[in-house]
Structure formats: C-alpha cells, structure tokens
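User: structure tokens for this one?
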Amino acid sequence: MQDVQNQRDYRNIPIDRVGIKNLKYPITVRDKREGHQPTVATINMYVNLPHRDRGTHMSRFVEMLHLFRPAVSLKNFSVILEDMKRHLNAASAHVDVTFPYFIEKKAPISESMGLMDYTCRITGVSDSEGKIDLVSEVIVPISSVCPCSKEISDAGAHNQRGEVRLSTRFIKFIWLEDMIELIERTASCDVYSILKRVDEKHVTEKAFANPKFVEDIVRDIAMKLKQDDNITWFTVSAENFESIHNHSAYAEITSQSASS
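Assistant:
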C-alpha cells in the first residue's frame, strides 16, 4: 500500500507544528493527598515537518499516548517527547495536556465537604538540540473586593468572582495543590463549592476586610514566587469579571528570568 505521507513535497516550505489537537484521553496525575487522581485530559501533540516531507503519520501520535496511561509526570513527558521525535523523524516535538483537577475542600466554618475543580495544564517541548522545556499551569477561581469601591462608599463595596492563571518553570517537581493554595491565599477570599449560612457570613466579611485590585493580586503572587529558589520562571495573570462594569479588569506579570 502506498505511503502518501512519505511522498516528497516540492513547495520548499517547512511546517512548524503538525499533529493532532483536542483529543480526549483518560490519564492519571499525581495527587498530593491521595497519591494519584484519574481524570480526562484534552491533549495536543505536534512535531515539526521538514520542507521535503508531504505529511506526518497522524496515527502514531495516538499510539504513543499509551505512555501516558500510568501517570502524567515530568519523566513521562521527557520520554514521550523524545519518542515522538524518533518515531516521526522530527527535530522538535510539543505536547500540551489540559485536564480538570479536583481537590476536596472544607467550608471555612461549618466544615462541610465539597469538591473544587481547577483547570490544569502541562506543556512540554523538546527542541532540535534535545533541550526539554516543561511548564505547569493552573487556573484558579477567586473572589475579590474593590478597594476603591470600599473607600468611597458609605456602605458596602462591589465584589466579583475572578480568575488567576499561573504558569511556572521549576527545578524540582511542584505540586498542583501548592500552586493553587498560593493563589487562593492572595485573593480577597477563595471560592468554595459548598457554603452554609455561617460560611457565607465568614467569606463575605473576610473578603470585605481584604480588598484587592487585580494589580495587588498579581504583585502579591509574584513576590512569593520570586522568593522561591525552585521557581526559575513564571507568568501570572488575574482577571476580574466585574460586577458593575461591562468589561473585565486584568493584570499580568512575567518574570525576567531565563525561559526557553
């Protein structure tokens, strides 16, 4: 049977990334409390394609995903990136894995248990020199109270839900839970999946006593990350879905240390 992908291409144009995108796949990730957690990921896998090749072998990407089945780890990312390059005769490879991650969380006063879900992402790249670059990302919902509104109002202040996105490069493994906890500590108040009336009173008063602009949130997170020798690079953004404006408030900080 003729292998059409291996035909020569004469347009003399290389392709930066070619592969599969938005594939749903069951994986297991490391869980700080339970050891491991099963979830379902959305996976993108790409390699470069030289100018002389007409196409790549798409089915091989899915075949190699079996390497992920036991667990998603830094070691697995390095292995699969190198295998992608070897099996697909590529100089570079890219894997992007996005998945929901669940943490059991107690309400602050009643201690009612609930599950909070967080969107997490691990990205790995292997370049033509074999250098591996790994980035871990978490997206965390938060609550914030506007300091300006509190200052100028005779009663109350406007508050809203927001979202913080934190991406890091690091020397040693960093738990997703630790990244999430860092973000939640910097908000006016964190978000819960279940709250009784005593909890609602507590989180409302806690947020009101701790007003934060998006600028405050990203600066507070950046200060903590800069004090951590394990973090070699980060980018953090905060977006407030404003309750009294027809727009979001946004702030972002990217560290100046080495990146890929």
